[in-house]
Amino acid sequence: MEFTIAVDGPAAAGKGTISRALAAHFGFAHLDTGLLYRAVGAKGGDPVAAAETLSEEDLARDDLRTLAAGEAASQVATIPAVRRALVAFQRDFARRSGGAVLDGRDIGTVICPEAEVKIFVTAAPEVRARRRWLEAGGDSASEPFEVVLEQVRARDARDIGRADAPLRPAEDAEELDTSDLTVDAAVARAVALVAARLEADNRAVDGRRV
Known about the structure:
Layout: E1 4-8, H1 15-26, E2 29-32, H2 33-43, H3 47-52, H4 56-59, H5 67-76, H6 80-94, E3 100-104, H7 107-111, E4 117-122, H8 125-135, H9 145-161, E5 174-177, H10 183-209
Parallel strand pairs: 1-3, 1-4, 2-3, 4-5
Helix pairs in contact: 1-10, 2-5, 8-9
C-alpha cells in the first residue's frame, strides 16, 4: 500500500512530534525532512555539494537538533540547487510500500502535492519560541527568550518569503493549531484526520470490489 501523509508547518509548531506519533500509530515509515537541511548546513563548505553527497551517517549526527543547526538549515534551504538535490530522495521515500509520513515546510505543496493526507501544523510565534527556548535549557540556555523569539520570527520571514517553495499550507491541507493544545490532544486530532481518510479509501476499494 502506498499512502503518504504530508505534515508541514513553521519551526517548533509540533509537526515533528505529531509526525512521529502518526508513523508509530499507523505503522508507517517517518522522515523528518528538516534533518536533511540541518545535515547539509552542519556539514559546512559548499551547501550544494553537501546536499548532493548527503548520507545516512550525516543524518545520524548528534548536533542536528541545536539552535545553530536550525539556523543553518533555514539558510541553506533558500538555495534552489540544494532543494533540487534533496527532492528525489524525499519523493522516493514518500511512495515506499507500507505508507510514509514526511514532515517539513513544502511537503504538501511541492514534494508530495498528491499526498493522501496533508496537515499544516502551526502555533503562535511566542508559543513556538518558548518551546525552542525550553528545549535549549530555558533559563540556562545560551540565548535569552527574547533572542530566540526574534530568531523564530526571522526564520518565519525567510521561510515564507523565499522564492523557491515558500512555507504555506496546501489548498487542501487541514490546519492544526497547537498553541493551546496538549501533545496528546494535538496527536489525537491528527490521528482522527488520517483514520478518516484511510476509512474512506477502504470503503472505496470495497465498493469497487462489489
